Amino acid sequence: MDSKNGNLVELRDVYKVYFRDRIEVPVLQGIDLEVREGEFVALMGPSGSGKSTLLNLIAGLDSPTKGEVRVAGESLGRLKPSRLAAWRARHIGFIFQLYNLIPVLTAYQNVELPLLLTKLSAKDRKKRVHFALDLVGLAGRAKHFPRQLSGGEEQRVAIARAIVADPTLLVADEPTGDLDARNAADILLLLQRLNQELQKTILMVTHDPHAAERAQKTLHLDKGVLQP
Amino acid sequence: MKYLRLILANLMRSKRRTFLTVFSIAVALFLFCTLRTVITSFEASLRASQATRLVVRHAASLVFPLPLAYKERLAQVPGVTGVTYGNWFGGFYQDPKNQFAQFAMDVPTMLDLFPETVIPPDQVQAFRSERTSCVIGRALARKYGWKIGDQIPIVGTIYPGEWRFNVRGIYEGKTPDVDENTLFFHWDFLNESLPEGRRNYVGIYWLRISSPDLAAPVSRRVDAIFENSTQPTKTETEKAFQAGFISMIGNVQLLLTIIGSAIVFAIMLVTINTMMMAARERTTEIAVLKTLGFSDGLILRLVAGEALVVSLLGGLLGCGLAALVFHETDFTGGGFFPNFRVLPATILTGLLLAAVMGILSGVGPAISAARLRIASALRKVA
Prior knowledge:
A: alpha/beta, Rossmann fold, four-stranded antiparallel β-sheet, 10 strands, 34% helix, globular, B: alpha+beta, 2 domains, eleven-stranded mixed β-sheet, two-stranded antiparallel ribbon, 14 helices, 13 strands, 18% strand, elongated
């Protein structure tokens, strides 16, 4: 966390430009953003507005064309790829729209993946995996493979994987986009609990205004510009 | 070690593909071990050759015999301390498929000139005293289940008819290189059974010399003696004779090396293709692992590790199978490869080759996976 002002995420004049067939496509244009520790922020906007790109920059999955991205006290542009990977392992828990579980691993093994990068013993890893699965209500499904789970259950496993290493920031890219209304409501409730009970800072991209209502703050992005 | 489970889980993703890749590598390594063993068995024959033994044959070809009368003249050449002789019999047991070497030998002198074949004294005595007796190698006895007292019917091809030999001895080699797949019987028995016109001819003479240094002068002297006769000779060391015998079928070593390399190279290309396909199919998963914090180096090691595990499994299977099959069947290639044993060095070379195949086939996909840009890979799916 940035100790000076209590902001966990700070973006200053961030630009991102893609090239498609040598044609310049500006995606983000001069983004300034601050997210405080413990906040639950929803990021809304139409398709192609740059929401996922912004999320990727904050999660250290991509680098800006211009500007500074500072998360958890670290300016990400200055980190080498190997240190950036270690930084992601320590600070970021990522929840995807399509869950992205590894199909050949059980729920337990999927949740354990981030812990393989730590120095924890097998016994400690086991303890933490069971705690995470218990937290998302899937303690009894540890040995199931993704194909044996429903969409809602898969997303719960993905959330357990995102929180198991106790990251500083949870980023969720349309976490309910592929779920029915009931499962979507359950997932949103779970994210809300993580924010309120475990004080997790959450940044969530969503199309759904009902989902955004769960957040404490909603930001709107349009054509690469944050709306006031 | 904690990542091994991840590697194995990925290999089990498509069991059929993994099995076929392992199997194709196993076949390549099986063939490699087989071809390599052909070479090592030739080399073993050369190693078993004695430096103090010369071989005398007809100058034109092995096919033409030499008169028995040469024996006395050969024995008188300075430096020669012993002479024996014999004929290649060229028969088979029951079925033409059951080929092994048979030699009609002058028994009293043979035992003196071939000290590397060890026969118990009582068996030597029994062999010497019975005209229709034979001694067989230990490996040959094991292969056909023959024991002392058995009668072996051999169908002659050079010397037609069915010949019956009583087993009176089983010999062992003093060293592992010594051939234990040959049947020796009495030259006199063969000679007396032949029609008058074919009698008293010898295929090969073996000379023992007092020192290896005398090989060249004695060879020259022997050939000079018979130079102007109707049956001139060619004398050479036993090693040169064996090497020449092998070279009759061309540059075997080069040929087999080329074939073996081509097989391994072809299978390596197949494996590279398979590993690239496997890695490409998992682009999203690799991007997800990187999102979780797996570094480029770790991803590289995981993907390369998969290729290495597949190749080593194939190598173990192929090399192990070759060792087992040729050991259990006592394969001799119709008597042409009496020492056909897959050596530990061949297995080790095979496994090293498998490891190299694994590294080479894994390095491309592993580098591609390590270089994968997370955002681009995830965008393609979304």
